[in-house]
Amino acid sequence: MNVTRATFDEVMVPNYNPASMVPVRGVGSRVWDQDGAEYVDFAGGIAVNVLGHCHPALVEALQDQGNKLWHLSNVYTNEPALRLAKKMTEATFAERVYFANSGAEANEAALKLARRVALEKYGEEKSQIIAFNKGFHGRTFFTVTVGGQAAYSDGFGPKPGAIDHCDYNDLAAFEALISDKTCAVMMEPLQGEGGIISPDPAFVKGVRELCDKHNALLIFDEVQSGVGRTGHLYAYMGLDVTPDILTTAKALGGGFPIGAMLTTADIASHLKPGTHGSTYGGNPLACAVAERAFDVVNDAAVLRGVTDKEKLFRELLDEINSKYNVFTEVRGKGLLLGCALNEEYAGRSRDFLNAATNEKLMCLVAGVNVVRFAPSLIIPEQDIREGLARFERAVAAVVNAK
Q1: Domains plus CATH for the chain?
Q2: Which residues contact 51 (CB under 8 A, 6 or more apart)?
Q3: What does the radius of gyration of the chain's CA atoms come to, in whole angstroms?
């Protein structure tokens, strides 16, 4: 069957507006479309393809497990899930793991767990959830309401209640909002969709202290910032603050759908049999691939390489900006970077994305004012240089089109 981009408009729900080209094959940090054109991938499937496309270790894990066992109901457990959970608890603060299929599902589980803990330990009055403006936590109705972007949550009728927001990095506003009625605080330790906003260290520590003071659980949404993305296995490790619950997905499966919620044994004990579940969550196929991805990423040399690659990105982006003067700063950490546009180009991040696509570079935006890069953690230096050469041509095209 011959399909093209036009087929999308014929058969798909119009909640997406994909690019005109259709990718068909990828190897490492290069992708080819239906016409055979080659692209450098700085998008990484939105921070998902942590080891690039078709990494040999992941292909091997997929083929090996694909010949053994794909799916079981959670009436049974399975070896890949147990091995992955064991490795995750050994590498983090956590003692217990719950597997799901996505970041939204992991966050849904975390929020339900936090409400359950508060109800059972303190009573019905302790139900408030605090999150931060411009945050993003998924597209289920619960998680999209907790996410602080009205554009994503408005227009679907009455929202879940007892959810409040304040500005990220505003400790005074947060302190005014939290109380003994707060059951949980959900935050990204590096805001992604909201514009690649790094946390002030004093803010993160202050949030942790106030959560302790008011017996509120601190949930870190590491769906985008986790699995090596910042140069630490998880971003909390570079902030000297430990959450009570952590969620992870995106890069966890290296491209295969999987999510997880991590927490302590004491907190986890409140999700007794039957209180929550997932048909596909923890299936052996996803866990086998994720286990291999986790093994590759959780390596000192790989994590050190992320920091080295960040330095190269920043150096080359500074060179581009010195010529064209379009960014105020390069935000973020590791290989989750955002080029914040200056006043002259405010609101035009998608123009830069489209120009990049025309130059055969795949990248992202984070709102209307930030161009975002989230490439493979093992992207070769030559691909970084080639990709940024293409990005420079894209920047020139936007500047010269004025």
Answers
A1: 5-54+300-400 (3.90.1150.10), 57-297 (3.40.640.10)
A2: 57, 58, 254, 293, 296, 297, 376, 377, 378
A3: 21
Catalytic residue among 174, 220, 221, 327: 221
Among residues 42, 220, 244, 250, the one annotated as catalytic is 250
Burial tier of 122 (Cβ tally within 10 Å: 0-12, 13-18, 19+): middle
- Grouping H, G, I as helix, E, B as strand and the rest as coil, residue 282 is coil
pLDDT digits (tens, 9 = 90+) for 361-402: 999 999 999 999 999 999 999 999 999 999 999 999 999 986
Q: What is the pLDDT of residues 31-83, one digit of tens each?
A: 999 999 999 999 999 999 999 999 999 999 999 999 999 999 999 999 999 99
Catalytic residue among 42, 99, 132, 136: 136
Phi, psi angles (nearest 5°) of residue 248: -145, 145
Q: Got the DSSP string for 42-93? A: SSHHHHT-TT-BS-HHHHHHHHHHHTT-----TTS--HHHHHHHHHHHHHSS
Q: Which residues are annotated as a binding site?
A: 103-104, 136, 139, 221-224, 278-279
Spatial separation of the C-alpha atoms in residues 22 and 1, rounded to whole Å: 15
